[in-house]
Amino acid sequence: MRLSRSVTLSLRTVALAYLVLLLLLPVGVIFAKTFEHGFGTAWGWITTPAAVSAFWLSVLIAAIAVPLNTIFGVGTALVLVRGKARGRALLDSLIDLPFVVSPVIVGLALVLVYGVDGWFGKWFMDQGVRIIYAPAGMIIATVFVSLPFVVREVAPVLLEVGEEQEQAAATLGASRWQTFWRITLPSIRWGIAYGVVLTTARALGEIGAVAVVSSNVAGSTLTLPLLVQQRMTTSFGPQAVTSSYAAGTELAIMSLVVLLAMTLIAPRKGDAA
Amino acid sequence: MSIEVESVSKRFGEFTALDGVSLNVVEGGLTALLGPSGSGKSTLLRIIAGLEVPDSGAIRLDGRDVTQARPQDRGIGFVFQHYAPFEHMSVFENVAFGLRIRKRPRDEVRRRVDELLALVGLTQWGGQRPHQLSGGQRQRMALARALAVDPRLLLLDEPFGALDANVRGELRRWLRRLHDEQGVTTVLVTHDQEEAMEISDTIAVMNAGRIEQVGSPREVYDSPATEFVMSFIGPVSRVEGRLVRPHDVAVSLEPEPGTVEAMVTRVIHLGFEVRIELELPGGERAHAQLTRAQTDQLELAPGDIVYVRWGARGTTGDVPQPRAEASPPATA
Q1: Is the ipTM above a cut-off of 0.90?
Q2: Phi, psi of A8 (to 5 degrees)
Q3: Taking CB atoms and an 8 Å limit, are A171 and B49 in contact across chains?
Q4: CATH fold of A29-265, please?
């Protein structure tokens, strides 16, 4: 389709304005507000004990949720694409559940199941394990909401790569396990990489489900997004703005670092994918 | 390695890919499974390789029942139609794969792979990725990869199907020489009768999930067991209820006993050969293949009335033969 020059120009303007208004401007404002009173002030706000604790809790949750969902995601994608078992269609639609259900509902459901009065909660309490209103519950909630990303990134790649290379490996004497490590995994590595980026971003940024199962105690059960929210809603004045924006900037930088890391190891054009 | 295929059947849903196929392949030969698409030839090859499991029947390699054995336990080499190169590995590593799986010492792998790359003319290309090779080169890489593990049986699925016509002819002759030098029992699948005739010792002609005839190229051409074999191997015309080969049609200008009248509708010069299209009084069409000298002598032109004799050759049966006879043990 060929568009006239004026149409192209106005379409570009609209797209650009859209991006600026919705993406660049708010993010820019956060950065600007963060450093309004100087770098030292901002640094001070992200090095308070509560902020440091929130940073490490966010890292811990991501460090557990991302590997779990990566392993589960690759396995599930293999079952969905290569498997012959019945019930794959059901599994396929179940995978998207975390996308469809509101995160708040996810949190509430976890409270019902693992809370003190929940189905399994009592048993866990008897063992001395606290899940709801503790980091364990926040990890479960994060795993749940970030579950589909790796599956959804890897499955299409598996489908596109096809089965022939794996069959060729088998005729050359490779066992299933050898074929997986030497053939399947290397050919889906970029799909996994993108899935990991998305999972990490979601794990770091999730607030809805995690808020429900967190006790929201600064220094123990606050993640960075929860800290931003708490600083925003419970304190007043310019301090509130700077302190929460500082935590927000920290969060944004963490996500950017993950994205940057991926871009650096991602394939250059012309390299075999 | 000898192969015995015994009453193998395979269905995919409602589609019957193989319907009680039996076939014997003797050690050392080059056998072509020839048939149109959907005839079951690729399925049969994949079942021999262990990439598919038959619904019923048995596969024996050197007398050992391998029907349920995994591909990696069969001692075979397989070349896929689209070569299935390992895209993330260099050409060298592709060829080395089977040896690495077998944990051969590093210097032995090096030596063997270099040897194979030289054999297939890819010495310069060892460090490249498969996608940097041409189709013919990828083909040869796939062959080297399959040969690296010293298979006793080499299986090739439409090995030249994805190549240009001239590359195809060249590779075909090259593969035949390779087979003569290495002596590995080879089975290849093709839908191209000319390819099967040129390259193989034995042809198994397949149609609709069955083997119609097994024989040398000359046998299946000169004594086709069924009408299908006759019409699939070489050109035919159907006249007066039977099949005739164009080069068996004799054309003369005078009526003789046993000839029928026909009108020339077209004269097509194909270099050395000339193709004469004919129409019979009843409206049936046929064609004759003559040499240029014959045509010049007859001075044929469209509209001429000629007298033709259909020649003696026909199918050995003209009716499909019993299946037991349609797939006798192959002799090489």
Answers
A1: no
A2: -55, -45
A3: yes
A4: MetI-like fold (1.10.3720)
